[in-house]
Specification:
- The chain is mostly helical.
- It has a domain of about 60 residues.
- The protein is built from four helices and four strands, in the order H-E-E-H-H-H-E-E.
- The strands form two sheets. It has a two-stranded antiparallel ribbon with strand order 1-2. Strands 3-4 form a two-stranded antiparallel ribbon.
- A hairpin with a 6-residue loop joins strand 3 and strand 4.
- It is elongated, with a radius of gyration of 20 Å.
């Protein structure tokens, strides 16, 4: 299924436990499915990030990183499009004002200044 990479011998304790826990999670077949040759989470059909495989010291399957990039690019495009069309709700603006006061706030994804006062 997934090719295991060698875990460095100096990894002990917490770090080693995390690697084994991540491997166990990924080897559990009730957490993921394959869609168009890409491993995806069953919970949301999103591609499993390449970093998840790397953290478990597993070889990243062919095509996985590219599928993740495409998914993220699509998500970001839809986020930017949504913000361009709808801006920020009164509730969001209120939360921003409560958190940042009169400071200028810029959405790092769209580059837009958020008028919140």
């Amino acid at each position: 299924m997934f090719k295991k990479l060698e875990i460095p011998a100096n990894f002990k304790g917490f770090r080693l436990n995390e690697i084994h826990k991540n491997r166990e999670y990924l080897f559990s077949t009730n957490k993921w499915t394959r869609m168009d040759g890409v491993y995806c989470w069953l919970s949301n059909n999103n591609p499993i990030p390449a970093s998840t495989f790397k953290e478990a010291y597993l070889e990243v399957p062919a095509g996985q990183a590219e599928a993740c990039r495409k998914h993220l690019d699509g998500f970001m495009a839809s986020y930017i499009d949504y913000r361009n069309k709808h801006g920020y709700s009164d509730e969001e603006q209120s939360e921003i004002a409560n958190e940042f006061g009169s400071e200028t706030v810029v959405d790092v994804f769209t580059g837009q200044k958020i008028n919140h006062v």
